[in-house]
Amino acid sequence: MLGALFAASPISLSALDSATRPANRPGRLNLSFRPYELQLRHAFNLARNQRTTTPGVQVQIEYDGLIGYGEASMPPYLGESVASVTEYLSKLDLSQFSDPFRIEDIHEYMESVAPNNRAAKASVDIALHDLTGKIMGQPWYRIWGLNPDKCPNTSFTISYDSNPEEMRKKIEETSPYKVVKVKMGLDHDKEIVEALRRHTDVPICVDANQGWNNKEKALEMCHWLAERGCLFVEQPMDKAAIDDTAWLRERSPLPIIADEFLQRLPDVRRAAQAYDGINIKLMKSTGMHEAYKMAVLARALGMKVMLGCMTETSCAVSAAAQLAPIVDWADLDGNLLIANDIFDGMKIVDGKVTLNNRPGIGVVPVG
User: Fold this and answer.
1) Which long-range contacts (C-beta less than 8 Å, at least 24 apart) are formed by 251-259?
2) What's the predicted TM-score (pTM) here?
3) pLDDT digits over 73-84, tens only?
4) Which residues contact 227 (CB under 8 A, 6 or more apart)?
5) Consecutive 10-residue runs of the chain (367 residues): their mean pLDDT?
6) How far is residue 30's CA from residue 21's CA, in Å, rounded to a whole number?
7) Which residues of 177-190 are buried (b: 16+ CB within 10 A; e: fewer)?
8) How far apart are CA 298 and CA 305, in angstroms?
9) What does DSSP assign to residue 163?
10) pLDDT value at position 44?
């Protein structure tokens, strides 16, 4: 299926400029990419939007017969689109690089082409890590020296649905998991937790998606949630409300975790002023290269580390999972929430993030 995806009129640098960027130059990096829309199994009802699909772009980097796979996923709040990602990728000339291990140099080059475009850059970064891991014949968690036995359980995400039957189905789907993530910030925050508690007593975590509009309400909710087996609260208030978030952190019985507030490495020190921990996502951090640095810095600052994802195929989720052994919490269910995955990669076994021994990011195309 993936082969057909790229075979059908792939957008490539060679097609854009065959005179200076010939296809499949030996000993050079060759980039191709194609849009691929992700279909959600259930509608996502969030504090600021609802959606049933997520736009995405699938990426390949070929080098001397090997292929590295990458992906960009663009939920609305990131500010990226298929058009912006493909426009950015079209500007890249990776054929100037003869060494795929020059990941730092390639990131510097990508930054020089255009600012922002974090998901677009992440797609290239993921493909580079997949490619270099395949060249070395090792998965990236081993290259980083990490112990896969230390991977945490993943949470499984649900959101409120006004249709009782749909809500029942969502709750039933949480049964195999040992942590449930509840999307909040709407008018039914307590209702969904009470419904879930009638079904299971597994720990929960909460993502308000900036949906709580004042610190007193946020504090009241934190105390209410603490009495109902909640582990932490993610992005309770607007990312600009730094002082109110710091006030909440000082009083909350639960850890407060930064999500929308946090994008890249320089944000980690800023987050330490108002949050107990950070949620690292490859689509925000420009990929694995910077995500690893963020985790190391957060640990040095005494912060908790969460590893998250967008709605993604197993490609990007498996890339993120390479970092799982060094985090406190994982929310790596993005591939489980879609109906049209095109990769086989990391697995959730008895609720736990489980890595395989395949080289690179550990994925193979399926279909």
Assistant:
1) 251/219, 252/218, 252/219, 252/222, 253/222, 253/223, 253/226, 254/222, 254/225, 254/226, 254/230, 255/231, 255/304, 256/232, 257/232, 257/233, 257/304, 257/306, 258/234, 259/207, 259/209, 259/234, 259/235, 259/308
2) 0.89
3) 998 778 999 999
4) none
5) 43 32 69 96 63 93 98 88 98 97 98 97 98 98 98 91 82 91 89 90 95 95 98 97 98 97 96 98 98 98 97 97 98 93 97 98 92
6) 9
7) bbbbbbbbbbebbe
8) 7
9) S
10) 63
Model pLDDT for residues 24-48, shown as the tens digit of each residue: 666 899 999 999 999 998 776 554 5
Beta strands in the chain, from DSSP E residues, in sequence order: 11-12, 30-35, 38-45, 50-54, 56-63, 66-73, 155-158, 179-183, 204-207, 230-234, 256-258, 277-280, 304-307, 329-330, 343-344, 347-349, 352-354, 364-365
Q: Which amino acid is at 167?
A: M
What's the angle, vertex CA 306, arms to CA 149 and CA 196, rounded to 5?
A: 95
State residue 71 phi and psi, 5-degree precision: -155, 145
Report how far residue 345's alpha carbon sits from residue 170's, in angstroms, rounded to the nearest whole number: 24
Which residues make beta-bridge pairs with 72? Answer: 57
Tokens 């292929």 belong to residue = 67
Please check whether residue 56 is in contact with residue 37, taking contact to mean a CB–CB distance below 8 angstroms: yes
3-class SS shares of the chain: helix, strand, coil, % to 5? 35, 25, 40
Answer for the pair 324, 301: CB distance below 8 angstroms, yes or no: no
Amino acid identity, position 265 = L
Burial class (CB in 10 A: 0-12, 13-18, 19+), 100: buried
Contact in structure between 153 and 179 (CB atoms under 8 Å) = yes
Residue type at 162 in one-letter notation: S
Q: Are strands 329-330 and 38-45 parallel, antiparallel or unpaired?
A: unpaired
